[in-house]
Amino acid sequence: MKFHAIAKTLAVLPLAVALTHCDQADQPKLAKPGTYAFDITVKMSPRAEAALKQSKTGLVVDAWYYGDAAPRYRDKADSLGRIFLGDENWSFSSNARKMHLKGEPIELAGLAQVRDGQPLVLLSVETAEGDPDNPIKCHDYIGAIRAAQQTPPVLLCEFDTERYWEDAAESAGQ
After folding, report:
1. Cβ(160)–Cβ(48) below 8 Å
2. How many Å apart are CA 6 and CA 10, to the nearest integer?
3. How many other CB atoms sit within 10 Å of the CB of residue 71?
4. What is each CA distance from 74 to 77, 92, 100, 122, 130, in whole angstroms?
5. Contacts for 48 with CB less than 8 Å, ≥ 6 apart
6. What is the pLDDT of residues 6-42, one digit of tens each?
7. Is a pLDDT exceeding 90 seen at residue 67?
8. Domain-located, residue 138
9. Residue 10 DSSP SS3
10. DSSP, res 167
11. Which residues span the domain enclosing 140?
C-alpha cells in the first residue's frame, strides 16, 4: 500500500512542476531592485503642516510608471500615447518628508514599446484619510525617472485656499 501512494505522488509530480513553471512564464519580468529607485521630498506649508499634525493622518504616495509609445506600438497605448509600465503605492507617517520609492513594479518587457526606452513617472501625494474635500493639496510631479534619480523631486503641499508656494517663489524673485 505504501508503495502505491508513493507511485501516485511521483506520477503527479511532473505535472505539478510543469504547471508551476507555466504560471511563472506568464509573469512579466520586473526591473532589478534599485534600477529605477529614487527618493522624493514632501514640503508642507506651515498651515498644511499644522492641519496634518492636528488630523494625525499619514501620507500616501502614488507612483504611476509609463513611457511615450514608440510609433509602431501606438495601437497599444492609451489615448494620450502612453504605455503603462506599472505602479506602486506607499503609506508613510505624517512626519515623513523624505521617502524612497523602489520603482520595482516596472515591467521590462514594456520598455521595448517606449520611444526612448526610458520610463517616466507621475507622482502624487495625498493624506491617508482619502477625503475628497481634504483641505491639503499637493502638487504632482511628472518626469523621467532618470531625472528623479539625479535630483529628487520636491512635491509641495499647501492648504487648498492658500498660495503659499507661489507667493514664496514670487517673494524670492523666481
Report:
1. no
2. 6
3. 7
4. 5, 36, 32, 20, 34
5. 135, 136, 157, 158, 159, 164
6. 545 445 444 444 444 444 445 566 667 788 999 999 9
7. yes
8. yes
9. helix
10. H
11. 29-171
Residue 149: give its domain's CATH number: 2.60.40
Total tally of structural domains belonging to the chain: 1
Cell readout for 35 is 534600477
Neighbour-count burial of 44, counting CB atoms closer than 10 A to its CB (0-12 exposed, 13-18 middle, 19+ buried): buried
Q: Beginning with the edge strand found earlier in the chain, give each strand of the sheet holding 120-127 in spatial order.
A: 82-92, 59-68, 120-127, 141-144
Q: For residues 47 and 29, what is the distance between their CA atoms, to the nearest angstrom?
A: 44
8 Å CB contact between 130 and 146: no
Dihedral of CA 120/90/129/139: which sign?
A: negative
- The per-residue pLDDT for range 109-124, each reduced to its tens digit, is 889 999 988 899 999 9
Q: Which three cell numbers stand for residue 165?
A: 508656494
Is the Cβ–Cβ distance between 107 and 29 less than 8 Å? Answer: yes
Amino acid residing at 40? I
Could you tell me the CA-to-CA distances from 140 to 22, 32, 113 in Å, in that order?
Answer: 39, 26, 25
Residue 158 lies in a domain: yes
The pTM (predicted TM-score) of the whole model is: 0.75
